[in-house]
Amino acid sequence: MQRRRVTLILSIGVTAALGLAACDNGSAGEETYELRFNHVLSESEPFHEGFLSWAEAVEERTDGGLTIEVYPSAELGVEEDIIEQIQDGAAIGQNTDAARLGQYVEDVAVVNGPYFVESLDEVEALRESETMQGYLDELEDQGLKVISFNWVQTHRHFFTNQEINTPEDLNGLRVRTPGAPIWQESIRALGASPVAMDFGEVYPGLQQGAIDGAELVYANIPAGSLHEVVSHATETGHILLVNFEVVSAEWFNSLPDEYQEILVEEADRAGRETSQVMEEEIAEIKDELVDQGMTINEDPDVEAFREAGEAAYDALGLTEVRDQIWSEIGKE
């Protein structure tokens, strides 16, 4: 697989693990810093281009003092393992979600709950939430520095081989979802039987009948050729998939203040731009899927799904947390 490299990793050993390399950057004694950034998506997805844009901007603004090498398709390893390495201080970054971060600060998982946020504006408003900022501080205390959380992969919908209009239509269907509790309880609340499965296993899982469907964003379908094994899309929009860019707090704090600001500013900038690109590409993706024979239900009973989703918050004790954050961002 071809991989675009933003820079060559020059250092090994303990200093590389901490992201502090004494490389010759044109000035004697000047330190350079390097970050290897891992994500599970393919090179064809907009997020990969967004991460490359972030890396290029950081390198340019720091005159090569801070560089990022982007690894798609989980080339550095499994997401959960990478996060553990990040906690230990490794100079690695990971694109992740609130569900996985909920394993460290339980209540932050609420961000992945059904219909928690429903627009890019609401995601931006989360920055003003005192409760959310408190969760980010708790994560940092555990070694995980969230440098941006405005990377949004659009709404998740159900993709199956039969028509779906209400939660009752999902009864008995085994639907793939990630394994974290908020994902599992959300899909169970919406009517299906959740099956924890890595994204790379979805195609064979559908092909072999191990699962009856999956809940994903539109961009995942052509990227994984899933239109070959599912025939129906149901636009429930049950989760707006907010992503978090995480690095080691120890590594981040080793950076000069200027580099910290640049890393955060460019991550936020690239996140906003990439999220908008993904929104704009949905219409084209849908047209392609219809041309390939997929049936798209644009008008299921979303209100019924919204009401059903309440059970997920109740099951995980997150209703009060959700309501508090909604109050802080002006959502009713």
Explain what the structure shows.
- The chain is α/β, with parallel strands linked by helices.
- It has one domain (14-329): D-Maltodextrin-Binding Protein, domain 2.
- It has helices at 14-17, 46-61, 79-87, 98-101, 120-125, 130-141, 181-189, 202-208, 220-223, 249-254, 257-291, 302-316, 319-329; strands spanning 20-21, 32-38, 66-71, 92-97, 144-160, 174-177, 193-196, 213-216, 232-248, 295-297.
- Strands 1, 2, 3, 4, 5, 6, 7, 8, 9 and 10 form a ten-stranded mixed beta sheet that branches.
- Strand 6 (174-177), helix 7 (181-189) and strand 7 (193-196) form a beta-alpha-beta unit.
- Helix 7 (181-189) crosses helix 12.
Features:
disordered N terminus, 332 residues, ten-stranded mixed β-sheet, D-Maltodextrin-Binding Protein, domain 2, alpha/beta
Please give the alpha-carbon distance between the first and last residues: 46 Å
Kindly state the mean pLDDT as a whole number?
91
Tell me what portion of residues adopts beta-strand conformation.
Answer: 15-25%
Backbone structural class: alpha/beta
**Biggest sheet statistics:** 10 strands, mixed
CATH class category label? Alpha Beta
Helix content: 40-55%
Radius of gyration, in Å, reads 20 Å
CATH superfamily: Bacterial extracellular solute-binding protein, family 7
Oligomer: single chain
